[in-house]
Each structure stands twice: as structure tokens, then as C-alpha cells.
Amino acid sequence: MQKFLITGIVFFYLIASNAASGADPLPVFPRNPSLWINSPPVSTEMFKGKAIMLYFFEEGCPRCLAKWPELMNFSKKLNGEPILFIAVNSGTPRNQLLSYVRTSRINLPILIDEDRSFETACGVPEISLDNIWQLRIITADGKLTTGNVSQLEEVARKALESASWNLDPKEIPASLKNTWVNVEFGNYSAAAKMILKNQTSGKIEVKNAAQKMLEYVNNQLNEELKSANSDLEMEYKWNAFKKYSNILQRFKGYEIPEEVGQNLRTLNADEKIQVELAAQKRFSLAERAFSSRSISSRKKAMIILKKLVLEHPETEAGKKAEAAIEKIEGSSVLK
Q: Which UniProt keywords are present, listed alphabetically (predicted)?
């Protein structure tokens, strides 16, 4: 397997996200679509209450190559179950891996871990011809565990013991399956049109399914609103601001209580919120600069980060920047 220089944006996003959490977080899936094959980006938030199996493999190994038919058949058996099988390749450039995937006719979701950040975050010993595959499971209750590649079905059964769908797919008619998928994985705004349209459907099974989905979405909205209101009452204004903003985005298309907009307008006028927003904008600027393979662009990103820490150390972005600087300076990304 080819060694590969750290690619910047993956490394930067991983350490910034981990810094924001303040504890041992689950591995962060990259948001960049170019780091995925056969799948759009996924996240642990999307799979909350569900399980994820992570298969790390060495593409230069004949045994790994011969195992793909078994893995793809195994993945088919998981269809309809609240679990996702993802293959992870560490240390190989996208174009080289794409050629391998096409030649081998692999149809599974594949995460491209060019800089081995994801491999490291999962506690996986470096994949190589001496360590050809590893299995990790993210359980429904948010824990990262180790599995045996030779016992896939047993590992899956155990992972499924605590995993579940929010809404029983057996109660969803075919015409609303895509809508159900969006609801299950938290993409509520994409489901809004079909859910609302079918509230008065002449087909009873369609109407009932649409009503159940609407009830579920409204419950999620109310839970998030309750959390935002609690933060506001506790004077955690920045957390409340982020949660109210998230409600407007995630639940676009549904009936959102007027208090969400009212509280957002009030918070937006707060001086501390303005500082947090300005700091976040500068952090995003550094993130974009760091996505470049140009060393000079990355050095400019470091200047932005250091200035952010100097001027706004108390902000969320300032704390992320401080942690990012520490990790970056101990790496090879600026060389």
C-alpha cells in the first residue's frame, strides 16, 4: 500500500472536530464527497440508534481481493436492517483506489482515508500486507468496538441487538420508502414535501404512514426546541443560537414555532453571539485554505488560526483553532 502525505482537509477536520468535543469522541466521518466511493458522505449523527460496521482492508492483498464477493453478499443480507457496512481504505490516492474498485466491481460504500487519520482515530493498527484487514463496529449506543472479520454474521447479529429503526419499514408503502429513508437518517427537510402532501391521501396505508412520519418529525422538533430553550434559560446563549439555527435548517418545510425565529433574532443582536459568529467565519476561512495542497496556503491558514486564538481565545472557534494548531505543528502537513 502506498504511503501518502497528509491531505490537509481530512486531517484538519478530524482534529478540529475532536477538539470541539473535549472527550474521546467517535471517529469523525469526512464530509468531503470526494473522499467517498459508491456513497455520499455519512455521519454518526445520521446513524444514531443504528450500527455501523467498518471494514479496513489492504487493496494490494490477494486474500482481500478474493473476499469481496463474500463481503458484498454479506452486505445484501443486511438490507432492511438498521446497520451499514462501510469499507475503509487507508493510505491510497483516490484515482488508484477508484481503478481497483471498478476492476473488482465493488459496490459497497468506501471511505478513502488517504492520510490514515480515520484509521488512527479508530485505533486500527496500520493496514498493510502484514495486517491485511481489521473490523470495527460503531454500536447503536455510540461505542466503538472490535470485531472479527472471519465472524461477520455473528458480529452483525450482536451489533443489531441494540440497533433499531425509528419507524418500522414494514409499515411504509413503497411510494414513501425514499421519504422514510430521509426521515430515518435525519434529513427531515427533504422528506417534508411528500409527508405533508400525503396527509390527505386517498390511500389509507399511505395516509397512515405519512401521519406517523409527521408525528415522529414533530416529536424530534419539539425535543430539539426543548433543548434550545433550556440552554437559553441557562444563559448558554451560543449553544442556544446554534440549536435554534439548526432547527430552522433541519425542519424547513414544517410548521416551526414562532419562538424559534423570535429567539434567534434576539440572540443575533447579542454582542457575544456576534463575536462567536465572526470567529467561526475566520475558522471556516482557515479550513478552506487548509484544503489546498499548497504549503503556502496551509501556512496562511496557520496565520489565521493563530490570530484567532490571540484575539478570541474564549470562543468555540478559538478553542478549536488552539487544538488544531497544537496537532498541526506536531505533524508533517506544513512540510
A: Signal
Q: How many residues does the chain have?
A: 335
Task: Please check whether residue 323 lies inside any domain of the structure.
Answer: yes
Which of 17-31, 234-248, 288-302 holds the top average pLDDT?
Answer: 234-248
Coil/strand/helix, residue 126: coil
209: containing domain: 169-269
Contact partners, residue 238, CB within 8 Å, separation at least 6: 272, 273, 276, 316
Residues contacting residue 194 through CB under 8 Å, at least 6 positions apart: 176, 178, 179, 210
Residue 293 and residue 232 in one domain:
no
184 torsion bin: left (phi>0), alpha (psi -120 to 50), beta (else): alpha
- 8 A C-beta contact, residue 247 and residue 260: yes
What does the radius of gyration of the chain's CA atoms come to, in whole angstroms? 22
d(CA 197, CA 213): 12
Q: Each residue of 241-271: pLDDT tens digit?
A: 999 999 999 999 999 999 999 999 999 999 9
> What's the domain count of the chain?
3
- Whether 147 and 239 map to the same domain: the answer is no
Strand partners, 131: 128
Instruction: Please enumerate, as own/partner, the contacts of 280-287 that have beta carbons within 8 Å and a separation of 24 or more.
Output: 280/315, 280/316, 280/317, 282/307, 282/308, 282/317, 283/16, 283/308, 283/317, 283/320, 283/321, 286/321, 287/9, 287/12, 287/13, 287/16
Domain membership of residue 335 (yes or no) is: no
Q: What are phi and psi of 111, to 5 degrees?
A: -95, 130
Task: State the Cα–Cα distance between residues 313 and 315, nearest whole angstrom.
Answer: 6
pTM: 0.79
Looking at the fold, whether 39 and 149 belong to one and the same domain comes out as yes
Q: Give helix 271-290 / helix 9-21 axis angle, nearest 10°.
A: 150
Residues 131, 199: one domain? Answer: no
Q: Which residues pair with 37 in a beta bridge?
A: 110
From 250, 269, 288, the end of a domain falls on 269
